[in-house]
Every structure is written in C-alpha cells, then in structure tokens.
Amino acid sequence: xxxxxxxxxxxxxxxxxxxxxxxxxxxxxxxxxxxxxxxxxxxxxxxxxxxxxxxxxxxxxxxxxxxxxxxxxxxxxxxxxxxxxxxxxxxxxxxxxxxxxxxxxxxxxxxxxxxxxxxxxxxxxxxxxxxxxxxxxxxxxxxxxxxxxxxxxxxxxxxxxxxxxxxxxxxxx
Length: 173
Prior knowledge:
The chain is α+β, with helices and mostly antiparallel strands. It contains two helices and ten strands.
C-alpha cells in the first residue's frame, strides 16, 4: 500500500511538472521529478518505453489531438529529437528516461499509412536497436497517453522534440 501511495505521489508530481518545465539545457539540467518506470506491452510482442520485448515493432499514422501523425500500435505519439539529426541517438540517461526510445528486436513494420520504406533501425550505445523513420531515431514522451500529444515543440536536453508526419518530416505546429 505504501508503494502505491509513493507511486501516486510521484505520478502527480510528474503531471504537475510536465514537459518543457524550463529544462532547456543538456543532461545536467534534468527534471526534478523522475517518472516511474513503466513498460507498455502489447500481446503481439511490440513494446514501448525503451524496453525490448519479443517480436517486431509496428508504427502507423494515427489520429491525435494534433491530427494524423506517426504513432505506435496503441496510438502513442512518436517524436524526433532535433539534436539527433539523421545520425544515431544522442538521448541517453535522464533524457532517455523522459523520452524513451522506440526499440525493436526485429525489423519494424509499417501499417495504416506509415511508409515502410522510411522505417529502419539504428544501433544504440548499449547495443539495442532503435526504430528510425526517415533516418531519424524515434522516441516517446513518457507522459503522453495514447492519442494525446503533450510535448510538441518542447526544447529539452539540447534539442527540440517534434512529432512526425507520414513523410517523416517534423510537424512544426
């Protein structure tokens, strides 16, 4: 019971801080509240939250409060990090705890208007395979529920976070 109470207090603190809470610097200016680690899994073996599960990962174009964007199988928004460019991920440590990479063990799959030709992977420093779209590593924001984008255009960890259109371009709204 005490663990549950601590988890609820931490979650409320996270929601109060939110993304873009003034953390515009690099890893040295990390958020003061760490979100609880939570893995979202699906029955087909895909995963989110930076934790590898069996099977491949599916991305699609889904409906959100910002319109149609790149999402995972359960409609959780996916972001690019401008600091990465089209190179390997530069988001580790506190950055990856707030913005978990989308990882896979098998080649990722595209459905529902996502373009399979734009999907790929990039090897992270720990050896994990991160999903890329149009050559850019993709991430979640830990506080986004399915279908809701909360951190569009936020500057954190030395770059800006944008959701992606079906072409792989940053949606700058």
